[in-house]
Amino acid sequence: PPPPPPPPFSSRRRHTRSLVPSRGLGDVYKRQEEGYIELAKAAMDATNRIKAGIESIAGLRIMGEPHMSVFAFDSDEVNVFALGEKMDERGWHLDRNPFPSALHMMVTPAHADVTEQLLADLEAAMNEARLSPASSAEGMAALYGAAAAMPDRGAVSDFAIGFMDQLYTIS
Q1: Burial bucket for residue 69 (CB in 10 Å: 0-12, 13-18, 19+)
Q2: From CA 107, how far away is CA 100, in angstroms rounded?
Q3: Hey, is 62 helix, strand or coil?
Q4: Tens digits of per-residue pLDDT, 58-105?
């Protein structure tokens, strides 16, 4: 029988032609673009469901008119930092914005499968926050609330540095 053909990168092969046909690259790029579009659609669908769910919870409102998957929301009923703490207790971490006080989300395709649970937990946290307004003076809610209330931005910076210094003191 004849000897087996040489491997594709053998020194016995002297050609310089690409191993990937050029027309195949167009297919690869098209599949990548379609994959990106699918992921972007999933993120935007989840974003729209989450924003609608937030708007349906009494006392919460979306800030501005966000067009993409990043947005913030606030409340005219509860301290949003306390609400964020209650969401932390449920396993969700919503970023805090101090100026103005708000909770901030960046929705990804991964949120598509957890939208309903997120909204159910947010509604339960909102109901709990309404019942315990004193919780705004506890945990990180107190830190964010104090920073947001300080009119001197330099004092906020000094306060944050001092807090972090005490938190991470090496003995």
Answers
A1: buried
A2: 20
A3: strand
A4: 999 999 999 999 999 999 999 999 999 999 999 999 999 988 899 999
